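hey all, quick one before standup. I had two proteins in the batch that finished overnight and I want to keep them in one place so we stop losing track of which output belongs to which input. First protein below, input sequence then C-alpha cells straight from the run.
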Amino acid sequence: MACLYWMLTGRTPRGFPPDADPVAVVLREPPVPVRERRSSIPGRLADLMDEMLDETNEAMPASASELSRTLEEML
C-alpha cells in the first residue's frame, strides 16, 4: 500500500526527517492520511489506504489477491 500511496501522492506515507532512524519512524510515527497529501483521492480508496497503512488495524485484506478484488470492487 505504501507503493500505491507513493504513486498517487509522490510522497511516502510518513515523513522521514534527515536525522531520524527510518526504522524508528515507521515503528513510532503514524502515517499521514492520504487525503492530507492529495485531497482528490476518492474517499473509499483513501479510507482503504489509510486502514492498510495503520499497523494496528487487523481488519484488512489478508493477501494480494484479496486486495486486488477489493480494489476492483471500487471501480
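OK second protein, same deal, sequence then C-alpha cells:
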Amino acid sequence: MNDVSRKNFLRLGAAAAVTGTTGILAAGPAAADGAGGSALDDPGPGWGYVSEIVRNTRPPRFAARDFSITTFGAIPDGSTLATDAIAKAVDACHDAGGGRVVVPAGTFLTGAIHLKSNVNLHVCAGATLLFSSDPTQYLPVVLTRFEGQECMNYSPFIYARDCENIAVTGSGTLDGGATWDNWWSWVTPSGPDARTLQQMAADGVPVADRVFGDGHHLRAAFIETQSCRNVLIEGLTILRSPFWEIHPVLSRNVTVRGLTIDSRGPNNDGVNPESSQYVHIQDCTLNCGDDCIAIKSGKGADGLRINVPSENILIEDCTLNIRYGAITIGSEMTGGVRNVFVRNCTIGSPNLYFGLYIKTNSVRGGFAENIYLRDLDISNLTKEVVSCNFYRSEGDVGPLTPRVRNVELRNVNVGHARNAFSIFGYPRSPIQDFRLIDCTYTSIDAASSIQDTELSFQNFTVNGQLITDLAQLT
C-alpha cells in the first residue's frame, strides 16, 4: 500500500469511530454508539478543486503530419482486412515523430489496432472502422483488466500500453460488430473463466501466467489504454461493443469528449476510468447496455495488490440515457475512488435505473469520498435517484470494509423516480455526511430505504414537501 493510500485508509478508519453527529442518522438495529458521526475535519476539496483538475487535464497535441491508411494498402470495401495496413501506418507515424493516422471515407474491416506514442488515429466523416467478429483477429493476448483483475487476454479493439500522447478522434464511426451471434453470446460461457481468474488473483498467480484468449470467453473492451499519459478520445460515434467501450486503466491526463455511444449489449458500460487520475469526460451522449459512466479501481485481491485509486475526475455537459447507473462508482472499486465532480448533465429515460449508483460491499471494499453532483436535470428513473447498498450482490461476507463519505447533491432536480434513496451502510461503517442541498424531487412513487446512513437536508423538497426529518422519506 502506498503512503497516500495508507494515510487515506487510516483517516477514514478513524473518522468512523468519532462521535458527534451533524446530520440525521438512519441506524440499523445493531448500530454502535457514535458510529454515525460525520467526523469531517477535512470535508474534502469542494468545487474549488475543479480548476486543479482542468489545469492537469489537457489534451495532447500532434505534429501536422498525416498518414492515410490507404497509402499502406487499406481498401474501403468493408470485407478486406485492413489490420496490417493500419499497423504499418501507425508505425510510420510513430517513427516520423508523430501525427495523424487517417481513416478516410469508406468502410474498413479490421482486427486489433495497437497505438504508439504521439499517434492520433483520426476517423474522418463518412469513415467506419468495422471490427471483425473473428476472435483470432485479437491475438496474441495482451495485458488487460477483466472486471477489475489483470490477465493476459484478447486485445481490446483499440489498445495502447505505456504510451504518451495518443488519441482516437474524428467524426466517423467505430463499429464493434458485436451481436448475439458472436461476442454478446459469450456472457454465459464467460462465467467459468471469470471465476478462474478471480481464484488466480486470490492465489497470487503471476499475471503473466493468467492466460486466457483463445479457447476462453472473456470479452475485450473496445478502447483501452494501459498505463498511458496524455490521452484524447473525441468526436466519434461508437456502436456495438463486445464489452466496456472506453476503459482507461492506470492512465493519467485523459480527455473523453464529444462521443456518441449507442451500444446496448450485456456489460456494455460507456466510459469506465479505472485506477486513473485526472480524467475529464465532457459533452458525451450515452445509450449503453449497462452503466453509462462507471468509475473503478480494481477488484478484490488484485485491487489490494495494485492499490491505485481513481481520482480527480470531472464529468460535465453529458446526456446519460440508458441503462443502469448514470453516474456509477464500482463495483470494482477496491482501490478506492475520490474527488469526483459531476455538473450540468441531463439524465434519465424510461430505461434508466439510477442517478447516482455506488456499488460495493465487504467483498469489494474500497472507499468513495468527495463525490459532488450539482446542476443536474433528471427526467425519469425506473428505480432510485441514489442507490448505495453495502449488502448488494455478495452481501456482508468478505474481509474488506467499504467506506463512503462526503457525498453532496446540490441543485439536482428530479422529475420522476420510484424512490429517492436506497442507502444501506454497515453498523461498523455507516455512510457518512451525505448532503442534499437545494434539490427538488417532483414525483417520487414510494418510500425510501435508509439504514446506517447519515443524511443532512437543506432546502430539499420531495413531492412538494420540505424534508426536515428522515421519517418523511421512510
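Flagging for whoever picks this up: The longest helix spans residues 190-203. Confidence is low (pLDDT under 50) at residues 1-23, 27-41.
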